[in-house]
UniProtKB/TrEMBL annotation, chains A, B:
GO terms for biological process: proteolysis. The keyword Signal applies. Homodimer. The monomeric form is inactive while the homodimer is active. It comes from Sphingobacterium corticibacter. Residues 255-444 form the Peptidase M28 domain. This is Carboxypeptidase Q. PANTHER family: CARBOXYPEPTIDASE Q, PROTEASE FAMILY M28 PLASMA GLUTAMATE CARBOXYPEPTIDASE-RELATED. Keywords: Carboxypeptidase, Endoplasmic reticulum, Glycoprotein, Golgi apparatus, Hydrolase, Lysosome, Metal-binding, Metalloprotease, Protease, Secreted, Signal, Zinc, Zymogen.
Length: 460, 460
């Protein structure tokens, strides 16, 4: 009995001493990031001097080279590029969509991966539906028509990511489904959380082998409402469409990688990062300039504080998350081939709004342990309180299958405003708040510190 | 033993049934607020059609009358005005502050309550300090000088309210302290969380009887840095100041009150609201248009859902929080005089950003109970997770002393951006996001529902 009490007392003290050290370290991390952090300034360069950067484009390669040089200014042990071959898709000249009878110009953007219209554009009647599943009810009626999927966003969800997910399949599968029924083009109501939004939101789509490709466009919410009204008034109204997009063949580009060697277990790796490519509109500020510049700055924060990692911390800027995920696929292939031991991953690809927490892919016991041990360090003082079991990010998710035991964290900033500007011309530097961004950097740096110093304590 | 098990089973079932009903009700509240809420539209009217509204001004009275008519459109049982006498302070013609030697114009705003400069303005050398406590070291040197308190904001705190509180006493006590040492004017570095901010932030100040009043101004952060540089270059540099502000005597104005009568315990009252006045710059959007329009819309949300309150819900728009708190003082006096039983209060006066939770003034046991029982209803699905012991809002705090047993909730939206625009010309309608505001309305409506339906279960 006496021995047990002593053991408890000792454990209690050790625990308290650990917690005290963590509290002190986190205070220093937050002070450094909020007062001297450089993510915001780096983001300004990425967005204003380079701009949007779709995989395969010259700008994407400029972003790669600039990222590499930026990493080389920091005391990483190794900075290198990892070859990735991507299919380059180019939008071409601006799209057009006009309701013929009143010459009303609709706001549209080609969906990524879409083919162009035939030379001279195309003009056709429009079939408006909410769900692709309605196509079969219309049967032969679909032939020769532009199919317009006008499904409104579910505004009732605070978790806008869920609302987005409810309808992404209709974006990606639409063109093939419509082509199968003989439709000539696809118009898709933008996935926007704002009902007053006249910006089209682009995004990926895909075709199915053996079915002819047809042109596919996103139409803004406000324009979708106008087209709906026009069709109510005249169901035979015709729309003229013109777009010049298409695949331009494979291009060799790169993931950008930097390693900070572990002092105790250099062969055990913590991967942290996000995708460096963006869609080809706006400036890719929240998607995903904040994720790349933020994770880099999280590491820089620890470096500036003189921290020495136990494990190797590897920063990865993935190429081509937006239209192919070839970068993270390649990363996973090589890591598996080299039998690397990746013990944990942090991904940031949900914007640079006020930090709320992390979704965690780990055993139930590990998530419980993190909630009990790490969450209290964040929640009261730093307003970060969401540590829930959930999905890794898209890029980590790609290679998660080969690394089932890697504990994965997906950074979650506030979700309210992200899908107002996601994949649009509105996603620019000015939409990012410095304090919110640097608060997120501090949260990520704190988590990175906790993983590196305490991951061995996680229940198996 | 058998009886105990049955009791536990019954209690368990009842509990679960309650939780199920709460979950359903909250889903309806969120759906109503996010898809059909009207706080944002009401806010547009208040900010764009009425604008800023300092207590005692014609616009404040216009806001009172419009609020009264708005409340009368809803099925309240009683809508009335409560007389409040306020001292009306008027800014007069725009202020001027110019560094004489280079004619550099500084961005300034008179602090609320300040006297004007003598006719023709004043010109004097400047004594720059960080803390008022330094005045005694300077002794007679202060005489005839403009004292410039140039204390930077503590950027390292995520809780910006704490950073604000660190320095408000220097704003309010500065003029009296400086006058006591023979200083001729007071220049105070604005309480802004942004380091790149050229907008002055006004706010209240006060004098002490028996000491001559001197003019007091807030200077923008960027201008404060420029003045600091000028003084580094030439410590004898003079500054010219001109302002035309002053007290214009007492004005009778009003609190605006609406009551929704309880069906079971009409004599037990839940007070909810915030202040309707604002500073006399910008549009008083986040401070406190969102608090008044938001709490009104929270009640409207319950009304639209057909809810019948057990207790009387009383909406109060307090007058004069910003420069005197005469409205809430009067509210407390009358409530005490009438021996009212106010069981709970909700205040909203911290902006309309994404909702994070509520600070709670209640017994430790009650706070624990709320964390265990109500917090789980909010945190995962609605991203509202902060239910901590804390201060009530300023207005509730005024009458809390007379009502020590009232459980008080202070709505806490995200704190990152609030003090970028607080008390400035930047606090306009465009700075409010509809989704964030309506998400907060839903959180407040949900709390109001939980208080009304379950307050009897709170530990004593």
């Amino acid at each position: 009995m006496h021995k047990i009490l002593v053991a408890i007392a000792t454990f209690g003290l050790t625990s308290a001493a650990f917690a005290q050290a963590d509290t002190t370290m986190m205070r220093e991390i937050y002070r450094q990031s909020l007062t001297k952090g450089e993510a915001y300034d780096d983001l300004r360069y990425l967005t204003k001097e380079i701009g949007h950067r779709i995989a395969g484009s010259d700008r994407a390669e400029k972003a790669v080279k600039w990222s590499e040089s930026l990493m080389k200014t920091l005391p990483f042990d190794r900075v290198y590029l990892q070859d990735v071959t991507v299919p380059y898709w180019d939008r071409g000249a601006p799209e057009k969509a006009i309701i013929k009878e009143n010459q009303d110009t609709l706001q549209v953007l080609a969906l990524g991966g879409s083919v162009g219209t035939p030379k001279g554009g195309l003009e056709a009647e429009v079939l408006e539906i909410e769900y692709l599943s309605e196509l079969q009810n219309h049967g032969e009626d679909v032939q020769g028509k532009i199919v317009f999927v006008n499904k409104p966003w579910d505004e009732s969800l605070v978790e806008t990511g869920t609302a987005y997910g409810l309808n992404t399949a209709q974006r990606s599968r639409g063109p093939a489904a419509v082509a199968k029924f003989g439709g000539v083009a696809y118009l898709f109501r933008s996935l926007s959380s704002s009902t007053r939004d006249d910006f089209p939101h682009t995004g990926g789509t895909r075709y199915v082998e053996g079915i002819d490709s047809i042109p596919a466009m996103a139409i803004s919410v406000v324009s979708a409402e106008r087209l709906h009204s026009a069709l109510q008034h005249n169901p035979k109204a015709k729309v003229y469409l013109e777009q010049h997009s298409g695949w331009k063949g494979p291009v060799q580009t790169h993931n950008v990688i930097a390693e900070w060697r572990g002092t105790e277990k250099p062969d055990e790796i913590i991967t942290i990062g996000g995708h460096i490519d963006s869609w080809d509109v706006g400036e890719g500020a929240h998607d995903n300039g904040t994720g790349t510049m933020g994770t880099l700055d999280a590491i820089r924060t620890l470096m500036k504080l003189g921290y020495k990692p136990k494990h190797t911390i590897r920063l990865v800027f993935y190429m081509n998350e937006e239209n192919g995920v070839h970068g993270s696929t390649r990363y996973g292939e090589l890591a598996a081939q080299n039998k690397e031991k990746i013990i944990a991953a942090i991904e940031s690809d949900a914007g640079g709004f006020a930090p709320r927490g992390f979704d965690i892919k780990a055993s139930r016991a590990s998530v419980d342990w993190i909630q009990a041990t790490w969450k209290p360090l964040f929640e009261q003082q730093y307003w970060v309180s969401r540590f829930l079991e959930g999905s890794p990010g898209v890029d980590s998710g790609i290679w998660a299958e080969q690394f089932p035991n890697t504990v994965m964290f997906n950074f979650r900033p506030d979700p309210h405003r992200y899908f107002d500007l996601h994949h649009t011309a509105k996603d620019v530097f000015e939409a990012v708040d410095r304090r919110e961004l640097q608060s997120g950097v501090a949260a990520i740096a704190s988590l990175l510190y906790l993983i590196d110093s305490q991951i061995d304590q996680l229940p198996k």
